[in-house]
Amino acid sequence: MTRTLTPPRPRRRLRAISLATVTAVVLAAGVAATSAQAAGSTLQAAAAESGRYFGTAIAANKLSESAYTTIANREFNMITAENEMKLDATEPNQNQFNFTNGDRIVSWARSNGKQVRGHTLAWHSQQPGWMQNMSGSALRSAMLNHVTQVATHYRGQIHSWDVVNEAFADGSSGARRDSNLQRTGNDWIEAAFRAARAADPNAKLCYNDYNTDDWTHAKTQAVYNLVRDFKARGVPIDCVGLQSHFNSQSPVPSNYQTTLSSFAALGVDVQITELDIEGSGSAQADNYRRVVEACLAVSRCTGISVWGVRDTDSWRASGTPLLFDGNGNKKAAYTSTLNALNGGSTPDPDPEPGDGCTVTVSRANEWGDRFNVSLAVSGSSTWRVSIGLQGAQSLQNSWNATVSGTSGTLTATPNGAGNNFGITVYKNGSTNLPTATCSVP
Ligand code: G2I
């Protein structure tokens, strides 16, 4: 059935506003359609459509396992060494550096056309024994020497370095974490960043931390203030890494996108650096979707890395927090992540040139009880789009297409208005973005 636009509020002034808003949405969809591209069929291809990367942590001792490297090579284009570039691994004895395993990871990544995130140059944890026992100016010099030597060894091969990791305390204090490094003086973080810039001027330099995802948390605000201060004083910093380790005690916050956009507004890139979300099935899939949608909504959120390949590779294996199960099968979380990277569309599993159409789906205006969804078809002027409403959602309105059905799966076909159309959906308890697939009848 074709539905005509009806105003969402009876009052005249509000009617004018809502019609103007809907007009803006339709125009915005027209702009989006010009850049719509074929859906990617791997995480790295789908992320690349919007100029982003999709990465994973890799363990050197698994590079000989083909089930592991097959998935890693196919799906990811940014590689982080899970442990092999940390302080205990790279400087086991003072001034004796060991890059064997870090180099194995870099060479695997680069020979497969991937980029590398460096993790990490200065951290209170995983210090070699000799460093744990140091303090004061001797420790400060040893830390700066470590930053310089490691960043120099990898100079020109690192996309972004986690220069300093986890330097703030948990809880409500907003204070620095107490550590031997912190006790060398509050300026240890900026000293580390300056040393890293001098050693590898082309790497992006990041501050990386966990529990910095909720915008209202004291730790998030403390990191924000550090970055703002560095930018104001010209201390070299290019990016903020949000580790984003989520579980039931630490869920994906509702204000996550606000956190990403607030950091980005300081003039730094934002990278999601160690994403994992404990859980299973559709709840886990939904959380991954929310994280990806938040990143895609912030232009300076430039990439997402998950912290391992399969659940069994995870530091939290019992929480099954990753995108592949222990047998290497794609989980529901994989599919929701891929679809979200593709802007809500489901990729054709067997694409051939000229064989159809693709549709991108995006969220637009939202009210208390309902929201608008913009759909943009590319690849064909004749099409049929199946729209999967989520939960108890139902159709209120549609424009620029003939839409049949009111709940569950809707079908949209052209009505002469072109390839960009929209619907208004009553939430009825679900704010999830409907899915859509396109076919040529
Ligand atoms: O703790 C999760 C991550 C939090 N953010 C910083 C990351 O660097 C950190 O990674 C984890 C690794 O995934 C674990 O693999 O860091 C842990 C140490 O803090 C790593 O665990 C260590 C074990 O503690 C060692 O016993 C083990 O020898 O992994 C080592 C290598 O498997």
Descriptive tags:
single chain; 8-stranded parallel β-barrel; 12 helices; 23% strand; disordered N terminus; elongated; 32% helix; binds ligand G2I; 4-stranded antiparallel beta sheet; 17 strands; 441 residues
Could you characterize what this model shows?
The chain is an alpha/beta fold and 441 residues long. The protein is built from 12 helices and 17 strands. An 8-stranded parallel barrel has the order 1-2-3-4-5-6-8-9, surrounded by 5 helices. A hairpin with a 4-residue loop joins strand 14 and strand 15. Helix 7 packs parallel to helix 8. The longest helix is centred in the N-terminal third of the chain and has 24 residues. The relative contact order is 0.13. The N terminus is likely disordered. Ligand G2I binds next to loops.
Topology:
Blueprint lengths: L11 H24 L7 H6 L4 E6 L7 H10 L2 E4 L5 H4 L9 H12 L3 E9 L5 H4 L3 H18 L6 E6 L22 H12 L4 E6 L8 H16 L5 E4 L2 E2 L9 H9 L4 E9 L3 H16 L4 E6 L25 H10 L16 E9 L3 E9 L5 E5 L5 E6 L2 E3 L4 E5 L6 E7 L8 E5 L2
Parallel strand pairs: 1-2, 1-9, 2-3, 3-4, 4-5, 5-6, 6-8, 7-8, 8-9
Antiparallel strand pairs: 10-11, 11-16, 12-15, 12-17, 13-16, 14-15
Bound molecules: ligand G2I.
Ligand G2I binds next to loops.
- Tell me the number of strands: 17
Order of helix and strand elements from N to C terminus: HHEHEHHEHHEHEHEEHEHEHEEEEEEEE
Look at the helices and sheets and give the structural class: alpha/beta
Mean pLDDT: 90
Low-confidence stretches at least 5 residues in length (pLDDT < 50)? Answer: 1-37
Net shape = elongated
* Biggest pleated sheet: 8 strands, parallel, barrel
Please bin the fraction of helical residues. Answer: 25-40%
Strand order of the largest sheet: 1-2-3-4-5-6-8-9
Radius of gyration, Cα only, in angstroms?
A: 24 Å
Strand content: 15-25%
Distance linking N and C termini: 18 Å
What small molecules does the structure contain? ligand G2I
Domain CBM2: 350-441
Protein name: Beta-xylanase
Keywords: Carbohydrate metabolism, Glycosidase, Hydrolase, Polysaccharide degradation, Signal, Xylan degradation
Domain GH10: 37-340
